[in-house]
Specification:
Layout: H1 15-18, E1 50-51, E2 57-60, E3 63-68, E4 79-87, E5 92-100, E6 106-112, E7 120-127, E8 133-140, E9 145-153, E10 161-172, E11 187-188, E12 193-194, E13 201-205, E14 213-217, E15 223-228, E16 230-235, E17 240-246, E18 254-261, E19 264-265, E20 269-271, H2 277-285, E21 348-349, H3 350-369, H4 394-408, E22 421-422, E23 424-427, E24 444-446, E25 449-450, H5 451-468, H6 473-492, H7 514-528, H8 531-538, H9 541-544, H10 559-568, H11 576-596, H12 614-632, H13 635-648, H14 704-710, H15 733-747, E26 760-770, E27 773-782, E28 788-789, E29 792-796, E30 802-807, E31 810-814, E32 817-821, E33 828-829, E34 834-842, E35 855-856, E36 859-860
Parallel strand pairs: 12-20
Antiparallel strand pairs: 1-4, 2-3, 3-10, 4-9, 5-8, 5-10, 6-7, 6-9, 11-13, 13-17, 14-15, 14-18, 16-17, 18-19, 18-20, 21-23, 22-25, 23-24, 26-27, 27-34, 28-33, 29-32, 29-35, 30-34, 31-32, 35-36
Bound molecules: ligand 9MR (2 copies).
Length: 862
C-alpha cells in the first residue's frame, strides 16, 4: 500500500477527475476474451443499437451520430444503447469507446440491468470534446447478468448538440482494476499549520529501522531546525512502518515551511498564531448551504445560490404538508419545511439533527463558560448568513433554523403519541445523483415517532430555552415548553424504537435510549434547576456508570453529552466534582491512546479499525480532551487536541486533508446530490470547511465504489475521495458540528502559550432570592503581586438573568454579558486586598445558577 501509483482507472471513476482514462488495455486471461458488443464499429450501420424516443441516429464516416435536443432535464432523457450482453460474476471487463460531442458535455456510460431496479455494474461519466477521444473503464461484474445493457445517457444539456460514437467494445478477461491512492511525499504533516508554542509532530513512512535525520526548511529553503526521527515500528491502523518526528522546539512563525527526511519533502505548512481562524467560521458557514426550505443566496454564499428545496413547490412534494408513511398512517399533516439536509441526501432526521444543533449551541455556550472562550468570536455578524446583524449571535441564528424544524416534528396535542417527535422525514425512494433539492420529485413521509427522537428534541429544546433566554424570551419559552412536553411523552413511551431498513432515507436506528434519557435530563436540569430533572440525572445509572466509550460519543451514544454539559454549564448539582473528574478520566484514556499512536490519532482500537464517520468520532474524542483542558488548564489535553487536528488535516496514511479547502491535498468529492462537481462540472464542490466522514474499515457497510476499490485496505486506507463512495466520503451535519466545535477551541488557543497564573479570585454570593429576583454581592480579591489600578469585571448570565439596581460598581449588560466597572473611589485593589460591589438581579424563571467564570481586566480569575 505504500507505492503510490495509480495503476488503473477506477471502475466507477468519473473521467472528469481521472482525466482521460489511461487504463491498461484489457488483457487475455486464461480464456481468450470474447467481444460482447455486436457491431461496435458500426460497419453494419446501426444494427444491434437502439435509441430512446425522439433521438434520430445515422452512421456518418463510420461512426454512429445522434442529434441530441437541448432543454431536457436528466441524463436519461436521451439514450443510445445495446441489450443482451451476458456478464459473468467476478469476471473483469474492459469497456471502451471513442466519442465526441459539444465541448464539456458529459456522457454517462452505464453497464447495467435493462429493467428496474437497474442494478449497475459500471456508471462512468466522461466530458466530451469536439474531436473524437477514446475512453476506457474497467470493472468487475458483481453478479451473473445474462442480459445486461450498455447505455450511453446523453440528455440534460441546455443546447442542441451532436453525439458521435465509435469502436465500442466490451471485452471479458480484463485485469481486475486495482486502486492505488496517490499518497504523495512520505513525510506527513498537518498541511494547514501548527501553533508557535504548540506541539509540532509529523510522521515519516519508511522501512528504516534506525532513527533518520530530519530538516525543517523555511519558505526560502533555508534549514532552520534539524533533529532525528523516532522509529515507531509497524502501525496497525495503516500497516506501515513509521517514525514519528517532533519539531516542537521550533517556535518561529512563518509560511511555506517543509520537513525533509529519508529523501522526501513534506507538503508545505504554516506556523502561525491563527491557522484555524477561517476554519472556525467556514465549518459553521457550512450549515447555511445545507438549509432546506429557503432560497440560498448567491450573494451570501458565492457559487452556491439555489432555489429553496422542499418548500411546497413542484416538482417537490414536501415539506409543507407532510403526512405519515403509508405503512404507519396518521390522520394529520405537518409543515416540516426548513431545517438542514442531513448530509448528501435530502433526508431530515431528528436524531442526527439533535446532536448537530446541540454542538452548535455548545460552541456558543463554551465561548461563555471556558477560560479560553471568546464570546466575540461567535457574536452577531460573525458568519455569512441572512440573519447577520439582527442582534443575535449568528451561531444561534443558524441553530434556530434547525431548532424550528425539530419543534415542527413534534406530534400535535390531541393526537395519539402527542408530544413525541417523528423520527424523520424523507423521500419514499432513494434518488440518484446529482439532484438539486428543489428538483426532487419523490413523495416524502413522516416516519413513526421514536423515543430517541423525542429525547433529542427534549435535550436540544431545553438547551435552546437556556441560550435564547437573553435574546428572545418568547422563543425561549416555546422551546422550554416543547422540551418538557417531549420529556413527559418519552417517559410515557420509553420504548418506541426506530428500526434499520426501509427505503429512501437513512435509518438512524437506535434501541438503547438510556443515554438519550440521561442527556435530556441533564439539559432540562441545567435550564430549569427543577428537582424532577435533578433526580432524573442523579438517579440515572449512567450518571455514575460507564458513559464514555473508546470513541467518545456520536448520534447513537449521547450519554457523554450529559456529562460534558453538567461539567461545564454553571449549576449547583451535588457531586459536580465527580462529574468533572469523570470527564478528565475519559480524557486521560484518549490521551494515552494518542500518545501511543504514531500518527497521533486519538482513537486507538486494538486492530486499528475505523468505522463509518470515523473523522466525526476522532473530533468528538477531541471535544472530550478539549473539555478536560477547559476544566483543568492542563496543557497535555490541549496539545492532544492540536495534535488531533494534524491527523484530520493531512498527517495520516493517505496524506489526505479531510476538510475541503484546507491543505494541499483536500477532500473535494464528498457524496452529495448538489455539491456534485465530480458528476456535473457546472455544480460546485462542497464549500470550504466541509468535513468528509473518512476511513471506514467495516467492509459490511461499504457502498459499491468502496467495494470495488478498497478491498483488503488497512484501516486508514479505507477511504476514497469519490462522490459515489458514501460509506467513506459523505458529509453530514453531525460531523461538521464536531469540526466546528473543535475548530473554535483550537482557534481560542492563540499561540498555545502556557496558561498564565491567575491574579484574582471572585466570590459571588447570592444573599437572598425570591420568585422573580435575587440580591448578590461580588467580592474581587487581588491575589497577585501587582496593585490593580482601575478594574473591569466580566461574566455571562446565560440562564437569562438580568441585572437591575446596583451599588459600589457600574454594571452594564448586553445580551448575557455583564460588565462591572469601578467607581474611581474603589479603583485600586492592592495585592492581598479586596473590593465588593452588589446588585439586584431579575430571574427569567429558569435555573438561577451563579456564573462560574469571571474575567478581571480580561484575565480569567481562578
Ligand atoms: O445517498 C445516500 C446516502 O446519503 C446514504 O448515506 C447512503 C446509506 O444510507 O445511501 C445513499 O443512497 C444510496 C442508496 O443507499 C442505494 N442506492 C444508491 C443511493 C445513492 O445514490
Ligand atoms: O452516520 C451514520 C452512520 O453512523 C451509520 O453507520 C450509517 C448507516 O446507518 O448511516 C450514517 O448516516 C447516514 C444516514 O443514514 C443518511 N444520511 C447520510 C448519513 C451519513 O452517511
Amino acid at each position: 500500500m505504500t507505492t503510490p501509483t495509480r495503476a488503473l482507472a477506477l471502475s466507477a471513476c468519473a473521467a472528469l477527475t481521472c482525466g482521460l482514462l489511461t487504463a491498461a488495455p484489457a488483457q487475455a486471461a486464461d480464456d481468450d476474451p470474447v467481444e460482447q458488443i455486436v457491431n461496435g464499429d458500426f460497419s453494419d450501420g446501426a444494427t444491434g443499437w437502439w435509441a430512446s424516443e425522439g433521438i434520430e441516429t445515422s452512421v456518418v464516416d463510420g461512426a454512429l451520430c445522434a442529434d441530441v435536443p437541448g432543454g431536457t432535464e436528466n441524463p436519461w432523457d436521451a439514450i443510445i444503447g445495446q441489450n443482451d450482453l451476458p456478464l459473468e460474476a467476478d469476471e473483469s471487463y474492459g469497456f471502451s469507446y471513442t466519442a465526441s460531442g459539444a465541448d464539456g458535455v458529459v456522457v454517462r456510460a452505464l453497464v447495467q440491468e435493462p429493467v428496474d431496479p437497474w442494478r449497475t455494474e459500471l456508471d462512468a461519466r466522461s466530458a466530451l470534446g469536439a474531436d473524437p477521444a477514446p475512453f476506457e473503464h474497467v470493472f468487475t461484474a458483481s453478479a451473473d447478468m445474462p442480459d445486461a445493457q450498455v447505455a450511453f445517457q446523453i440528455g440534460g444539456a441546455d443546447e442542441d448538440w451532436t453525439f458521435c460514437l465509435d469502436d465500442v467494445s466490451l471485452l471479458g478477461g480484463a485485469e481486475p482494476p486495482v486502486y492505488e491512492p496517490d499518497t504523495g511525499p512520505r513525510v506527513r504533516v498537518n498541511q494547514v499549520g501548527y501553533l508557535p508554542q504548540g506541539p509540532k509532530n509529523a510522521t515519516v513512512v519508511t522501512d528504516a529501522e534506525q532513527p533518520l535525520p530530519w530538516e525543517l526548511a523555511d519558505a526560502d529553503g533555508t534549514v532552520v531546525a534539524e533533529g532525528e526521527t523516532v522509529p515507531r515500528g509497524l502501525d496497525p491502523s495503516s500497516d506501515q512502518n513509521v517514525h514519528s518526528l517532533d519539531f516542537g522546539g521550533f517556535t518561529e512563525v512563518g509560511t511555506g515551511f517543509t520537513l525533509t527526511a529519508d529523501g522526501e519533502t513534506s507538503h508545505p505548512f504554516d506556523i502561525a498564531a491563527d491557522p484555524y481562524v477561517d476554519l472556525a467560521t467556514d465549518a459553521l458557514d457550512f450549515y447555511y448551504t445545507q438549509r432546506s426550505g429557503i432560497e440560498i443566496s448567491d450573494e451570501i454564499a458565492p457559487g452556491y445560490g439555489r432555489p429553496a428545496g422542499h418548500a411546497g413547490v413542484e416538482p417537490n412534494q414536501g415539506d409543507t404538508e407532510v403526512t405519515c408513511h403509508p405503512d404507519t398512517p396518521c390522520d394529520y399533516t405537518l409543515d416540516v419545511s426548513g431545517g438542514w439536509y442531513d448530509a448528501g441526501d435530502h433526508g431530515k432526521y431528528v436524531v442526527n439533527g439533535g446532536i448537530s444543533v446541540h454542538q452548535l449551541m455548545s460552541v456558543y455556550e463554551r465561548a461563555h463558560h471556558a477560560p479560553t472562550g471568546d464570546p466575540d468570536r461567535v457574536a452577531d455578524s460573525s458568519l455569512a448568513i441572512p440573519e447577520r446583524d439582527n442582534g443575535v449571535p449568528d451561531v444561534l441564528d443558524e441553530a434556530r433554523w434547525e431548532m424550528e424544524f425539530l419543534l415542527s416534528m413534534q406530534v400535535p396535542e390531541g393526537e395519539e403519541l402527542a408530544g413525541m417527535a417523528h423520527h424523520k422525514v424523507h423521500d419514499a425512494e432513494w434518488t440518484g445523483l446529482p439532484l438539486m433539492p428543489d428538483r426532487d420529485p419523490q413523495p416524502r413521509y413522516l416516519h413513526p415517532p421514536s423515543t430517541a427522537a423525542t429525547l433529542n428534541l427534549a435535550a436540544t429544546a431545553a438547551q435552546c430555552a437556556r441560550v435564547f433566554a437573553p435574546y428572545d424570551a418568547d422563543f425561549a419559552a416555546t422551546c422550554a415548553e416543547a422540551a418538557e412536553t417531549a420529556w413527559d411523552a418519552a417517559l410515557e413511551h420509553p420504548d418506541r424504537f426506530a428500526t434499520a431498513g426501509g427505503q429512501g432515507g437513512g435509518p438512524y436506528d437506535d434501541d438503547t435510549v438510556a443515554d438519550e434519557f440521561y442527556w435530556a435530563a441533564a439539559e432540562l436540569y441545567l435550564t430549569t434547576g427543577a428537582a424532577e430533572y435533578q433526580e432524573a440525572v442523579t438517579g440515572a445509572e449512567l450518571h455514575t456508570g460507564e458513559a464514555f466509550t473508546d470513541s467518545a460519543f456520536d448520534w447513537r451514544w449521547t450519554a457523554p453529552l450529559g456529562r460534558l454539559q453538567l461539567a461545564t454549564v454553571p449549576n449547583t448539582l451535588d457531586g459536580r466534582d465527580e462529574v468533572r473528574a469523570s470527564v478528565v478520566a475519559a480524557a486521560d484514556e484518549y490521551l494515552a491512546a494518542a500518545e501511543e499512536h504514531p500518527y497521533g490519532l486519538v482513537l486507538n482500537p486494538e486492530n486499528g479499525a475505523l468505522v463509518w464517520g470515523s473523522n466525526g468520532l476522532v473530533l468528538n474524542t477531541m471535544v472530550v480532551l478539549a473539555t478536560a483542558y477547559d476544566l483543568t488548564g492542563d496543557a497535555r489535553y490541549r496539545d492532544a487536541v492540536l495534535e488531533g487536528m494534524d491527523y484530520v488535516l493531512g498527517r495520516n496514511a493517505l496524506n489526505q486533508s479531510y476538510v475541503t479547502g484546507y491543505g494541499e491535498n483536500d477532500a473535494v468529492n464528498q457524496h452529495s446530490r448538489w455539491y456534485a462537481a465530480q458528476l456535473d462540472p457546472s455544480l460546485p464542490h462542497p464549500p470550504d470547511g466541509t468535513l468528509s466522514g473518512g476511513p471506514n474499515s467495516d467492509t459490511a457497510t461499504w457502498d459499491p465504489v468502496s467495494q470495488a476499490n478498497l478491498e483488503g485496505c488497512a484501516p486508514q486506507f479505507c477511504y476514497i475521495d469519490h462522490i459515489d463512495a458514501w460509506s467513506t466520503n459523505e458529509l453530514t451535519i453531525n460531523w461538521n458540528s464536531a469540526l466546528a466545535w473543535v475548530s473554535a477551541f483550537v482557534t481560542d488557543q492563540g499561540e498555545a502559550a502556557p496558561p498564565t497564573a491567575s491574579a484574582c479570585e471572585v466570590d459571588y454570593t447570592v444573599h437572598g432570592a425570591w420568585e422573580s429576583g435575587f440580591t448578590t454581592q461580588v467580592t474581587i480579591r487581588n491575589t497577585g503581586d501587582e496593585p490593580v489600578d482601575g478594574w473591569e469585571l466580566g461574566w455571562s448570565f446565560t440562564g437569562g438573568q438580568s441585572v437591575g439596581r446596583h451599588w459600589s460598581g457600574d454594571l452594564e449588560q448586553s445580551g448575557p454579558r455583564v460588565t462591572t466597572r469601578d467607581l474611581d473611589w474603589n479603583a485600586a485593589i492592592d495585592p492581598g486586598e479586596e473590593t465588593t460591589f452588589g446588585f439586584v438581579g431579575t430571574r427569567s424563571g429558569g435555573s438561577d445558577a451563579a456564573p462560574e467564570l469571571f474575567r478581571l481586566n480580561g484575565a480569567v480569575c481562578g
